[in-house]
């Protein structure tokens, strides 16, 4: 390889336009060698926006022999076949989440990358948020006392500026809000609290489409012992949009959008007080660009200086969990529907 990594980005949708490409252009050890999209005009427009002198094409296979690494930001269903072709061509891969839409495909990606001696990193940029690392340090310090549980709600009406719309196709996306956004939350709670030993899962998929709402109860067996938690997701209405972790002595809250801090709540003389925790040595500045930090970790891993913070095997464990959730899903109670059905039967 030359001094600068020759990088291709596959897929020029919203995630690339807003995050991956700005990070790549800013990185001193990376040269963007190609932008690949089924709509070549979109790739060219994006290249002109950043003044890039690179290859623009819809034929990703023509790029594989010309680059050292790629970011796979294609629709979910294309992650596995493209990753495998990249590995066979000797190309390192940073794959957007989810790694695959089935556990079998994810396992194949891991095995081929390992046999080839190539880096497989996964786009779990939340791992690079300052508050993700801060919570780990605070828990290890025992600031909450013995842990008792957590509750994480994340929901708004759909507002992502998708260019392809693949999120709404089960065949292309592999699932709904759990596969798309829940994968981030599951990756975080498993990283903090350890493997999931038991779960109960409910969603509003009636069997033929994708879920927009999820309620997931989890039991972990990890570094802090047995711990119960709940994740609730929605694409249709606003939830509390915060993570709450509590112990015998205090609790933490992590509001959505606050990437560099945690809020600690505790009681002093029967009065609840709060304080905001953040890194004081400038580390919080990384939270402003987790995609840059993610790319930097990928580049350093290729050069053997680091390991991927989120790798293929970790992604495989999360996809296996999601697959099990879908297989054992119960439908979220919808009493207004049940009342309507009962009324229809009574009048029949």
Secondary-structure map with pairings?
Blueprint: E1 5-10, H1 14-26, E2 30-36, H2 40-49, E3 55-57, E4 69-72, H3 79-88, E5 92-96, H4 103-116, E6 120-123, H5 130-140, E7 147-155, H6 170-173, H7 177-193, E8 196-203, E9 213-222, E10 225-234, E11 242-247, E12 250-255, E13 262-268, E14 271-277, H8 290-302, H9 312-327, E15 330-331, H10 335-347
Outline the structure in words:
- This protein is of the alpha/beta class.
- It has two domains: 5-125, Rossmann fold (3-Layer(aba) Sandwich); 126-283 and 311-331, Dihydrodipicolinate Reductase, domain 2.
- It has ten helices and 15 strands.
- The protein has helices at residues 14-26, 40-49, 79-88, 103-116, 130-140, 170-173, 177-193, 290-302, 312-327, 335-347, and strands at residues 5-10, 30-36, 55-57, 69-72, 92-96, 120-123, 147-155, 196-203, 213-222, 225-234, 242-247, 250-255, 262-268, 271-277, 330-331.
- The strands form two sheets. Strands 14-13-12-11-7-10-9-8-15 form a nine-stranded mixed beta sheet. Strands 3-2-1-4-5-6 form a six-stranded parallel beta sheet, sandwiched between helices.
- α3 links the parallel β4 and β5.
- α3 packs parallel to α4 (103-116).
- The longest helix is centred in the middle third of the chain and has 17 residues, at 177-193.
- The protein is globular.
- The relative contact order is 0.15.
